[in-house]
From TrEMBL:
It comes from Hevea brasiliensis. This is MATH domain-containing protein. SMART domains: MATH (SM00061). It holds the Pfam family MATH_2. CDD domains: MATH. Residues 50-186, 192-303 form the MATH domain.
Length: 303
């Protein structure tokens, strides 16, 4: 009986340790969410890694001990533009943080030779990897808020990505063996003056998994669903690698964001892409009656 009890206590202790880590992470997210309620920032944990860029730093202590205020990643390209991540290991003093948080920003790279009058409108997410939970802490602006990058403002991000006390405690999983991992997802929003009811819109080309893709949106429906539903398709832009008969098996999700309540409309698919089939998607992604009902949060006009 004593052996059984001892074994149970060991199991309970292991579970308790895991729960303590989870509790600390959830507490950190909760406290920051309360503080940032007025600034409309969302924090959540997810399993999937960043789709566009991962920024791994080894020997983080060297950065935090150095006199450099910030550290930048190499350039990477998304949506036809080049970007960088800018990390402030002890917080951005310009953001009046008083060195209490790690700060992280998305920067429009100087290599774009960006004209002062031009702008890029972007919705983005920044990430910190929790190496114990094997999950990513996602930090993003609420309600799908779009940030405007231009010559006079080439940097947007978060002064209070995660508190230094939580980040530097290895038991929380952000900084383990002096290594930490950050990331980014970037969605470029193209402005257009075309009629919303035109046949279709095609997004800029983006790269995931080493392949070039685009999305085609039919706001008034495609084929038999015209006038009934919004339709969307994923298109493989470069099918040259498949001339020899190869096929690319792909799992993907097409989603319409609910900007008010977070109850998104989405459909999942697993399809093979090849030279004869480089388009897959859904003609009935969301009924137009739901899309055009502003109270449901799918279609909002933000001034």
């Amino acid at each position: 009986m004593m052996k059984v009890r001892a074994t149970m206590e060991e199991v309970i202790n292991e579970l308790t340790a895991e729960e303590e880590v989870k509790a600390v992470v959830e507490k950190e997210i909760g406290e920051l969410a309360i503080k940032e309620e007025q600034t409309e920032i969302i924090r959540e944990l997810r399993d999937l890694p960043p789709a566009h860029y991962i920024f791994k730093i080894e020997n983080f202590s060297y950065l935090s001990n150095a006199k450099l205020e910030s550290y930048e990643s190499s350039d990477f390209e998304v949506g036809g533009h080049k970007w960088r991540l800018s990390l402030y290991p002890k917080g951005n003093k310009k953001g009046n943080d008083k060195n209490e948080h790690v700060s992280l920003y998305l920067v429009l790279a100087e290599s774009n030779a960006f004209a002062l009058h031009k702008e890029v409108n972007v919705y983005f997410k920044l990430f910190v990897y929790n190496q114990i939970q094997d999950k990513y802490l996602v930090v993003q602006d609420a309600k799908g808020k779009v940030r405007r990058f231009r010559g006079a403002k080439t940097e947007w991000g978060f002064d209070k990505l995660v508190s230094l006390s939580a980040f530097n405690d290895a038991s929380n999983g952000y900084l383990v063996d002096d290594c930490c991992i950050f990331g980014a997802e970037i969605f470029v929003i193209e402005r257009t003056t075309k009629d919303w009811n035109q046949v279709g819109y095609t997004s800029q080309v983006f790269v995931i998994g080493g392949y070039k893709w685009s999305l085609t949106l039919y706001p008034n429906g495609y084929s038999e669903e015209k006038g009934k539903c919004l339709s969307m398709f994923l298109h493989l832009e470069d099918s040259k690698p498949f001339y020899s008969g190869q096929k690319l098996y792909t799992g993907f999700i097409l989603r319409v964001r609910d900007q008010l309540f977070g109850v998104h409309r989405e459909q999942k698919a697993n399809n093979k892409f090849c030279t004869s089939a480089n388009n897959w998607g859904f003609t009935k992604l969301i009924p137009l009656s739901d899309l055009n009902d502003a109270s449901k949060g799918f279609y909002l006009i933000i001034l």
